[in-house]
Design a protein that fits this description.
By secondary structure, the chain is of the alpha/beta class. It is 60% helix and 12% strand.
């Protein structure tokens, strides 16, 4: 079964605009035709009053013209309001459609990108209802207004064209001058907000370690830097904006003076003089608005380009065929992994092993050896740069994400609980999860009694503002979440962190129960005790595997027979020098201590 690929990733935003938001853009453009034509109501009214009403001294004519003007301006107000409302809904629809796609793509990139992408999308939403956005629809009508002025008098038309070119040149200068300040202000504001969130989250630790004064000093420095860049941008845009407004008013007066001169020479009527001044003001208004709102335009353009780049490098997931439910056989062949930290750094190289269902693999190594990187790769967080990881013969990326997620259990080094109840966190935020499955996972990891000891039990709420659980309690909830749903592959990264003796015992029983039902378990640890009962252990040094070793003798017979609580099975020991030695190396390198 095959599925057609999605649209080209680079055109995803443009494609959405043409299907959904594109219709709204055309509606705004159509309304702009009438609003710009209705802007001629004032000049035409002035022309008729000066050239007909005053000369004929006809009050009925004035009354009819005034009633018509009142009606046309009412229509203009309704249409202009409708255009603004449609623009706001265009931004909201764009935000609603792209929000999950952009955030999902950003999450697969890095945390910084994940924090910035929603802000960029919100900036696009706000721009859709900004005056600068509407000015883009009014700008194409500038030549029409200039042409009308030229029809009144060619010399006034020439002066109006020169005025428009002068204001356009000022706009180009504004674009050049504000390009750097806009980028600096955006980057500084993002860094200041990020530091604010970090300090707020870690406030208790700052007090404990007497770091509050230093942290606040650094925060204040970053905030001042952001303010300086914001002021620089404001000064630059304000200077050009004020110049544009003053120049526009001067040019209106200039064309009024030129019109008066032509009236004195008998080449123009007084109504034409007034009309030319009003029309020129209307013709230059979009240029004035674009100059004043250019920072918004630049931010919107930068946000659109950034989001397009994000989506192009993170193409949408194709629909995948649901494979048979995996049993838990894990095969890793020549696994290589690199991470980007300034320069690309190799964290894993040529790691290979096979783990059958119902087996336990222990991974040891010094800090920075690559244990956590291997754990992340085994659950699909970091795609391999070389080699492959297969679950029951299929690569991880060949499984549909929901099927793979249900088959895997993962405990990261740092457990993060999400806003919601403990039940929600154990259930992996699945609203359809049954209470019995949640309680079974909690009991399997020894967290059930701990949860019941809390005042609200499973309904205990987790919030970002209040830390209601200790580190050990967090760890137990994370373990329960990893074991929820009976996954066939369970990867535990430093599962003993923050656990007491009772928690360690519960962890051992949970691992034993998992492999008794046929699940494969991978655990990384610094503790030798946790490697008791592993069917195989591997040691990593600088990302490379020293050697795998299967359990043998009595351990192998115990594993295939009773599957009872394990005894010590080929566990490595620590030497006096703090190094890890395996029992099978004692014959060559001396007795292990």
């Amino acid at each position: 079964m095959t599925h057609p690929p999605d649209t080209a990733p680079g055109d995803r935003i443009r494609g959405l605009l043409t299907r959904g938001e594109g219709r709204l853009v055309w509606v705004i453009g159509g309304i702009s035709v009438f609003t710009n034509l209705l802007m001629l109501t004032g000049p035409i009214f002035m022309l008729q009053v000066y050239d007909r009403v005053l000369s004929s001294q006809s009050e009925p004519t004035l009354l009819v013209l005034f009633a018509l003007v009142a009606f046309l301006y009412t229509v203009f107000g309704v249409l202009d309001h409708a255009r603004a409302r449609i623009g706001a809904r265009l931004g909201a629809q764009l935000h609603d459609r792209l929000d999950p796609q952009v955030f999902a793509a950003a999450l697969s990139t890095d945390r910084t990108r994940a924090a910035r992408a929603p802000a960029e999308l919100s900036g696009l939403q706000q721009f859709a209802s900004a005056p600068a956005f509407m000015a883009l629809f009014d700008f194409p009508w500038v030549p029409l207004f200039l042409g009308i002025i030229a029809l009144l008098n060619p010399w006034l038309g020439l002066l109006a064209c020169l005025a428009a070119l002068l204001l356009a040149g000022l706009g180009m200068a504004n674009i050049r001058a504000s390009r750097l300040p806009v980028g600096q202000a955006q980057t500084s504001a993002f860094r200041a907000d990020r530091m604010t969130r970090q300090i707020a989250q870690q406030s208790p630790e700052l007090d404990t370690m007497n770091m509050r004064a230093g942290a606040l000093s650094r925060w204040q420095g970053q905030r001042r830097k952001a303010l300086d860049h914001a002021l620089a941008l404001s000064d630059t845009c304000g200077r050009f904006g004020a110049t544009a407004r003053a120049l526009r008013l001067f040019l209106q007066s200039a064309i009024l003076a030129a019109g008066a001169l032509l009236v004195l020479r008998g080449q123009l009527t007084p109504g034409g003089m007034i009309a030319a001044s009003i029309i020129l003001g209307r013709a230059l208004a979009p240029l004035d608005q674009l100059i004043g709102g250019w920072p918004q335009v630049q931010l919107a353009r930068a946000g659109m380009a950034s989001l397009r780049d994000l989506l192009s490098h993170n193409p949408p997931l194709r629909a995948r065929t649901r494979l048979p439910v995996p049993r838990g056989q894990l095969v890793v062949r020549q696994l290589g992994l690199q991470v980007q930290t300034g320069a690309r750094r190799v964290v894993l190289r040529d790691v290979s092993f096979t783990l059958g269902h119902g087996q336990v693999l222990g991974v040891v190594g010094a800090s920075g050896a690559g244990k956590s990187s291997l754990a992340a790769a085994l659950v699909g967080l970091w795609p391999p740069d070389r080699g492959e990881i297969r679950l029951d013969g299929a690569r991880l990326d060949q499984y549909p994400p929901d099927q793979l997620g249900a088959a895997l259990g993962y405990l990261p080094q740092r457990v993060t609980l999400f806003e919601g109840s403990l039940r929600d966190n154990i259930a992996r935020l699945d609203p359809a999860a049954s209470d019995s499955d949640v309680i079974a996972a909690a009991k399997a990891t020894g967290a059930h009694d701990m949860i019941l000891s809390l005042p609200d039990g499973y309904e205990t709420m987790i919030t970002s503002e209040e830390a209601r659980l200790s580190g050990g309690q967090n760890q137990r909830i994370g373990l329960a979440r990893a074991f929820f749903g009976d996954p066939v592959v369970i990867v535990l990264d430093e599962p003993d962190a923050s656990l007491d003796a009772e928690g360690l015992r519960a962890l051992g029983l949970a691992i034993t129960a998992a492999r008794d039902r046929g699940a494969s378990v991978v655990l990384t640890t610094h503790r030798v005790e946790l490697l008791q009962g592993c069917d195989m252990t591997i040691q990593l040094e600088r990302g490379a595997m020293v050697r795998p070793h299967p359990a043998s003798g009595e351990a192998a017979r115990r594993h295939t027979a009773t599957r009872s609580v394990p005894q010590v099975l080929q566990a490595p020991v620590l030497t006096d020098a703090g190094q890890i030695r395996f029992p099978w190396e004692a014959g060559r390198n001396g007795a292990a201590r």
